[in-house]
Structure formats: structure tokens, C-alpha cells
Amino acid sequence: NHAFNLNFFVHDAPVPDAENEAAMQQRLAPYYNELELGDAPAARSIFPIFGKEMLAVVTELSPKVASFHFGLPERAMIDALKEAGAVILASATTVCEAIALEAGGADAVIAQGVEAGGHRGTFLGDVESGTVGTFALVPQVVDAVRVPVIAAGGVADGRGIAAAFALGASGAQIGTAFLACPEAQIHPVHRELLLKTPSEATQVTRPISGRPARAIVNRYITEMNESGAEPLAFPLQYSLSGPLNAASRKNDSSELMVMWA
Question: pLDDT tens digit string along 29-82?
Fold first, then answer.
């Protein structure tokens, strides 16, 4: 009975690559054997595409806020969500993306700096173009769009919020700092590492889901990066790394766990 936000990835259906999939299954086989999980499964798309069926469900639920990552759905869908009473938020990692989101109907733009935990929101051009720091990105986005701008990435306390406001942001989005709260359903091992791991011990990496995302560095990230194995397209890679994460959580081990931060 309170306002809430529904958040969605906006991604295309991945194109299967049998050869790459077989190579990744072989690369992950030692981990599956170590955890006694059997053979690596066939890759599958574990996140639904935001299409007409999803739109129908969301408009029926009528959330106060609908937010999007990796761009926006087509304009007709955005208009339908607005008619249902939702405020539309979306993430930008560059000025060009912010301008595109405003044109696509976003009511506010989340300026996501490279420090942010979890998935990079880049959706235009090469992902390397979206590696601007939060407090360099925010004022540029503020100058480029007319809608409110929300600062995200490395904001963890009042100082960061004050800095965001000083640079013209209308709000701040905090993620990692709240993960240690008792309400957050993260694994105790993840929570413990959050509280004692320096920020430089995180890394933007692709082997978890197939898209660049920032997480606490562990054995899985280190070994996969060193192997040079090409991750499957998002989110197919996630369907293969996911069982390793689940088993690691069950075993209270951080070695192969997904720990966004």
C-alpha cells in the first residue's frame, strides 16, 4: 500500500552460438565437478524480454515508478506506462545516452558513473565510452537534459549526496551501501566482505552475466579473466554461472559467488 518501483533490464533476445556455448561449458566444467553439480546445463535466456506481455502485467500492477537499465522500451510502451501512472527512470552512462533517454520519454535520468556496483547501463556505442566517473558525468548530464538527474555510483553517505546536489543533481541513488542492511537478502559472506573490503577490490567484469558489471573480485572472476574465455551473450552466460553462485551460497563460500558492489 506504499509507493514502489519495478526495475527492468531492456535487452534483445541473445543469438545462440553453439560453438561458443560448448567452449564455455567446457571451461566451467571443473567448477561444476568441484561442486558436484554434474554437467553444465544448456545456456538459456533467464530474463524475460520487456514486451507486450510484460507491459500488460506492469500496467495492471500500476507501480508509482518503473525504471529501466540498458535503454528504454519503445515509446508506445513508455506512453502506456505513463498513462498507468508510472514515473519513468532510466540509466545513462554517457551524455549521449542521457539525451536519448529524455527523447524516449524518461521523466528523470540516472547518471550512472563507472564506480557503480552491478551492471553497467551502457546501451549506445562501445561500453568503454561509458566509463566516466560519477562526479564528472553528473554535471555534464545536468547541462544536457531538461529532466531531473539522479546521481548514481560510489555515493555512500551524506558527503556524496551533498556533492551530487552541488553538481546539479536532483537526487542520489545508493545501492551498495544499503546491501549491508538487515533488510537486504544477501548472503552473510557477501555482507561480511562488503564491510571489510576496500573499494579497489571490485572490478567491472563480463564472465558473470555476459555484460560488464562491477563485483567484488573473487576466484571465479580472477580465473575467468586470466583464461581469456569469451563469455556468452547476455543473459546466456548468467544461466551457466548462476548454478555456481547458488552452490557457493549453499556452501558459505565466496570463491564462486556473485557479489555485486
Answer: 999 999 999 999 999 999 889 999 999 999 999 999 999 999 999 999 999 999
Q: Using a cut of 0.85, tell me whether the model's pTM lies above it.
A: yes
Residue that the C-alpha cell 509507493 belongs to: 3
Cβ proximity of 37 and 243 under 8 Å = yes
The rounded distance, in Å, linking the Cα atoms of 91 and 104 is 12
Question: DSSP code of 167?
Answer: T
Residues near 260 by Cβ (< 8 Å), separated by ≥ 6?
117, 118, 175, 176, 179, 213, 214, 215, 216
Distances in whole angstroms, Cα of residue 23 to Cα of each of 34, 43, 175, 211: 18, 12, 34, 18
pLDDT at 233: 95
Cα–Cα dist 221/219, whole Å: 6
The HSE-up count of residue 8 (CA atoms within 13 Å, CB side) is: 21
Cβ atoms of 30 and 92 closer than 8 Å: no
Cα dist from 159 to 1, 125, 126, 134, 164, whole Å: 32, 32, 32, 14, 9
Q: Which residues have CB under 8 Å from 215's CB, separation 6+?
A: 117, 118, 202, 203, 205, 208, 221, 258, 259, 260, 261
Q: Residue 128: what pLDDT?
A: 79
